[in-house]
Model the fold of this input.
Amino acid sequence: MALDLPRQDPLELTRLIGVLAGMGIIWVMGLLDDRYKLRPRLQFAGMLLAAIVAILCKVFIEVFNSPFSGAQIKVDWYLMVPITLAWLIGMTETVNMLDGVDGLATGVTAIASLVLFVHMLRLGQYSVALLPLALLGVCLGFLRYNFYPARIFLGGGAYVLGFALGALAIVAGAKVATALLVLWVPIVDVGWQVYSRWKRGQPISLGDRGHLQFRLQDMGWSAPRIAALYYGVTALLGAVALFSPSRTLKLAVLAGLAIAVLVGLYLLTRKMGDRTPTGT
Amino acid sequence: MTTWPFLVVFVVALGLTLLLTPASIALGKRLGIVDLPGGGDAIGEPSFASVAWRSFLRLPSLPCCQWRWISPVKTRWSSPG
Done:
């Protein structure tokens, strides 16, 4: 990062290597998954390996702010490792599951990158802010071909975007709350899918059309309309994350939106029934 | 703080992606690994070139993996989720 920008963190280069190495591992895993249909166990092993490499390079959640008091909470390594693993793998899977409607995962990742970029600038982390900015550029470039009518989908590349977002959110101090808020709708959706698949005895890794974006599509919504809805909600939540000084408001938005999405998904499930597994 | 590093990084990332993605699409189609819209709505017809290319390569079927392709004639890509 020799671009004449001030650095705050002496371990910045180590962490950058960790992010890039993890992304490289995820990229290879995604490519293999596109070429062959990797079993979920192997996909998980790839994500786990990438996350471990990132942690070894000091990309981890060590300190975060309490959402209630704002006090800084420092966690020991035996909590830090599982929390970071869950965060990185969860973000990777969340973005991957979004990649099914034209421009959806790419656009949402672009907005999340923009939010992270602005957040880092405001914290004075200028050199690190280049990373989400680069991710934003890549997403906008790809969106040219991925937006409706899509000529290409991310496929395994969605894993890379998800891992990159997850890693960038913790590479220079945890910004977990910001990333959580921005991606809250897909995260709640993934949580609902895991619960509903478990409830009906379907393997959690076996994909179906139960996701919110697919249910909207099955109701007749066009791909650009679904993408616009997700872009709007993501941008709105990003604005709340960036500009709202009130922790209570952020928590209220998180809770309110989670309830709204879960009620919506419950009603849609009752109306449309469970979705047939697609075999992926 | 100078702004040019931000401009350079953004323009390079955007420009490279705009330039390289069409080549990636072509290469991916040739290798038969371009991911297409999912969820059972999208039905992709693999091109003759990609089928011929795969036959020519005689790609191995590893025990840990299975082909994404169901049929060499007509393929239904399922949702990634």
Q: What stands out?
A: Chain A touches chain B through 52 residues (CB under 8 Å).
